[in-house]
Amino acid sequence: MRKRLREPRFAYRHGLSTAAYRELVFDWLRELARDGLGSAAFPRAYGGGGNIARFLAIFETLGAHDQSLTVKFGVQFGLFGGSIYQLGTERHHARYLRDVGTLALPGCFAMSELGHGSNVREIETEAHYDPAARQFIIDTPNESARKEWIGNAACHGRLAVVFARLSIGGEQHGVHAFLVPIRTQTGGVWPGVRIEDAGEKGGLNGVDNGRLWFDRVRIPRENLLNRYGDVTEDGDYSSPIANPTRRFFTMLGTLVAGRISVALAAQSALKAGLAIAVRYGASRKQFGSSEGHEVPILDYLTHQRRLFPAIATAYAFDFALKSLVGRFVAAIESGHDADAEYRRVEADGAGLKALVTWHTIGGLQAARECCGGQGFLAINRIAQLRADTDVTATFEGDNTVLLQLVAKGLLTDYRQQFHAAGARGILRYLGRRASARLARVNPVLARRTDEDHLRDPDFQLGVLRYREERLLGSAARRLKHRIEAGADGFGALIECQDHLLALARAHVERRTLEEFARGTDNAEPGLRPVLHRLRELFALSVLEREEGWLLAHGVFEGAKAEAVRALVNQSCRELRPHAVALVNAFGIPDEILGAPIAMAGAP
Amino acid sequence: MRKRLREPRFAYRHGLSTAAYRELVFDWLRELARDGLGSAAFPRAYGGGGNIARFLAIFETLGAHDQSLTVKFGVQFGLFGGSIYQLGTERHHARYLRDVGTLALPGCFAMSELGHGSNVREIETEAHYDPAARQFIIDTPNESARKEWIGNAACHGRLAVVFARLSIGGEQHGVHAFLVPIRTQTGGVWPGVRIEDAGEKGGLNGVDNGRLWFDRVRIPRENLLNRYGDVTEDGDYSSPIANPTRRFFTMLGTLVAGRISVALAAQSALKAGLAIAVRYGASRKQFGSSEGHEVPILDYLTHQRRLFPAIATAYAFDFALKSLVGRFVAAIESGHDADAEYRRVEADGAGLKALVTWHTIGGLQAARECCGGQGFLAINRIAQLRADTDVTATFEGDNTVLLQLVAKGLLTDYRQQFHAAGARGILRYLGRRASARLARVNPVLARRTDEDHLRDPDFQLGVLRYREERLLGSAARRLKHRIEAGADGFGALIECQDHLLALARAHVERRTLEEFARGTDNAEPGLRPVLHRLRELFALSVLEREEGWLLAHGVFEGAKAEAVRALVNQSCRELRPHAVALVNAFGIPDEILGAPIAMAGAP
């Protein structure tokens, strides 16, 4: 993948018209398909590589290159192809996967509707079964049900996986996915389908997003992706999952790969931006103690504080994401993608997607500003990466909504342990969760400011564990009080939203720090010292950001908060000599990095 | 201005090529020039309006419209025309200002160089005086001296105000400004000048930025803008300001108007974005306690927390900026633009520019995310406003550099009061500065969590004053220790950079809160209650953000920090019914707002 992207034909071109940019991206996509890179996850029987881990690595590598190409790749092979693979059965695999993988059949993933972006359960597109014709009739009943923001729809898509409410003879069976043609072989719009170009966007203009309306479009019965729900010729409905809610969320499970992929690609974009900013900062000089002796801007503490914790956090998320990818692949390959572990992978993926994408946006913003005007020029790529990744905060699940899902999951777990399992369950629960050393506030520890203590990984992790535990317990109590005071569950959640977001963040960060520590232990010995420093800076930067909460809850005393701040400064200074090596270690070749300011000898 | 911008010819067009966009902006600029809007600040004798306040109001109004037009307007009339007006004398005014105002003479402001973005004092472009020919020879001695990022240079500029080091017979006289032709009347490049297009940028693509090189370009002696330094025909140098450093900074004073203008325009862009997001949030529904009864997303606490403190802060900066504009205009109109008050205006402008532009970037980001995918579509404008204002954090002075200037000014003032004025000076100083009620930490107050107390404006302002005082005193001590330990002034400043930024921020926020209170008191009675609430939310959101520092320094106890957080939530809920009115009060007509999602009846 890296070799391919270094070829001159994949060189960036700036200032293209939207039409030309879309065609360039489609051409690039065809190149990648030709190499079999898009079908890496599909079964070998249908021309694929049979290797999901490889597909994710390909996608991650692509993320340092053009983001429009990355998203277009994800739409075609991940969302469109992936949903045929995961929601369909043998007959769909045999008929479509090969052409999806070669790009002979470009397609769309049509889930979102204008009126229902985050709330997929409320989508209104209809799929009526007509037993006489043995067809489904796909219909857009009103304007809020139009399919919105659909990648590949405006120009290239021919077939779409359309999510719609299935009804048979007046009976509702909930949301299912259907294969609906939107263009003919020759590119004309399919009868009964209306397509509108979504137009210019704040980024990703190489992706042809569009809107879709269906006016009683008839499709064969076989076009239902029937793994989790099927309809016989006579119109009898059956499903391997009896509970409609569970069935719905199992189908949504196809989005898990999408969220993990978005996080992986965002990370790669951030790494590219950080590499450009650090390499520029090491060569660019401004100001100094005497005229003519200006210093590299990377020597400034303000510069280090903006870039180095971001680098440490990128490394942290890398370990967390790689671990998650491993679990995801294991669950899929063992066919356990409807099991409890898969649900946990889903929740972890939702939480990481939210934190990783926000970190990417913030980190690229810092990188842009650290490069001044040079960072704003298209050829130096950071502004473009920043604009293109912006939407990752709200697509594939709005980050705020995703974090609430994470928090709700934690609360459900907490409640089940406490209320269902009885006294023994509570004890077991507490024993498991409160294993942190710092299970209760310790006034002696709160006062300690010596470096040995502050640099102790157990202390750092202990604080993160304590914070999560305490936020979880207090959130549960707050919700309980609200509900006892007469609020419904939804109203109670709204009132505690800020608390829930803090809890979810605390949870993801604690797990991330654990993964970082594990990753450091497993790294080759020569790498451990610098990884250890990065892990430390990640932990300290979280402690610094959360100093308000930690002080308010007696975990820190004032002097300790100040000591943490001073140690972050010191940690930045210690990492300064390694900074260029740390971003070069992201392994992004110069051709993919692209930015002239990041190249040797740049002024 | 508003009426003009509502005309159909000023309607936004998305997806233009860069070349077409630049020409559209230039056409728009011509329309505004035709109305005399660009020359509003120039003297009446030269076709101007003689009214600086009016010019700034025009610029501010423009800021809600296209940012490329805003910047192009600022370059032509503010930077180019303004520097001729302020650095030149009668002969330049008579010869150029009329044509600058009508756009018959498009021009550039060529200060920044590739190697010296923020550090203008180090620029390397040379201006040698040749007494025999009575000419200056303008020359770019090396690549790092090329003029970089010059607006109007790539396409339209014909004359440039070029900052260069003046030398006469080998003697150096420091940086001065010269009028240098870069294109002929017919648009050809002037002999000896080289121009390169800066190319695509992360935003503002309607502005034709470029690079300039001068190869011994000869200009008449009269082209020196000679208000602060002149050269006789024989090559004798004279200046009304003997001290070269003071002369340099007086000349840089021309940038004050630019920084204030950037802040005003950024504020307008943010207001437009907030108006769009709030109006959309009030109509857009997602999720709810029962199916089919979704709630407006603006009812969600997370949504309110992202938008309402941003609205309150926008109002706060409005009062601060309007007050600053008044002082700036008074200083200029009374001819006191070299006096101490003007220096203070300059420092206040630098601080406000930094905080306002960062607030704009963060606020537009929140607005974008609050509108989900709709916020990413170009027609809904927020993404474009966000991309276009991004560079305001680093142009017209990098924000980090500007805040350090503010902090250094405070420290100089502090040192002078302490070390020069003796005991009486110290007492007077303390009496003046420590007038806050909360001059020392008060354990009783630190514990109070009742609403009366937390909502007391004197309490809120007192905390902000205390924070500033304490950061100032401790920064002074830290620097003193560093210098006593052997560091030079520059090294000591670098080590304390994070402290200096916190001090500058504390200073600007304290002053802003004071201006907000004053503005509320002077408002018409019917407006005071809601302004009071906004002022309160602004103050509380600063206290919440700074809770870590306040807890660490004993100003707050834990329960108080929690009470502040709860009160921010409550304040958001209280403002919810006023939210749409508050953004409509920004007074941006629908045609200028532009975004379909912000219009009545939007889905």
H/I helix tally of chain A: 22
Distance between the termini of chain A: 31 Å
Can you tell me the residue ranges of chain A where pLDDT is under 50 for at least 5 consecutive residues?
434-439
Largest interface: A-B, 83 and 82 residues
In quaternary terms, these chains amount to homodimer
Mean pLDDT across every amino acid position of chain A: 93
Residue fraction in strands of chain A: 5-15%
Q: How many beta-strand runs of chain A?
A: 13
Query: What is the molecular shape of chain A?
Result: globular
Structural class of chain A: alpha+beta
Main beta sheet of chain A: 6 strands, mixed
Binned, the helix content of chain A reads 55-70%
The value of Rg of chain A in angstroms is 26 Å
Question: Secondary-structure map with pairings?
Answer:
Two copies of one chain form a homodimer.
Chain A: H1 2-6, H2 18-34, H3 52-62, H4 67-87, H5 90-102, E1 107-110, E2 126-130, E3 135-139, E4 147-150, E5 159-168, E6 171-181, E7 193-197, E8 210-214, E9 217-220, E10 230-231, E11 237-238, H6 244-252, H7 255-283, E12 285-286, E13 295-296, H8 301-333, H9 340-370, H10 382-389, H11 399-420, H12 422-433, H13 443-447, H14 451-454, H15 457-484, H16 489-495, H17 497-522, H18 528-545, H19 547-552, H20 558-575, H21 579-584, H22 590-593
Summarize this, please?
The first copy, chain A, has 603 residues and is an alpha+beta fold. Chain A is 55% helix and 10% strand.
Question: Mind explaining what this structure looks like?
Answer:
Two copies of one chain form a homodimer. Helix content of chain A is 55%, strand content 10%. In chain A, strands 1, 2, 3, 5, 6 and 9 form a six-stranded mixed beta sheet that branches. A three-stranded antiparallel beta sheet of chain A has the order 4-8-7, with no helix packed on it. Chain A starts with a helix and ends in a 10-residue tail after the last helix. About 1% of the residues of chain A have low confidence. Chains A and B meet through β12, α8, α9, α10 and α16 of A and β12, α8, α9, α10 and α16 of B.
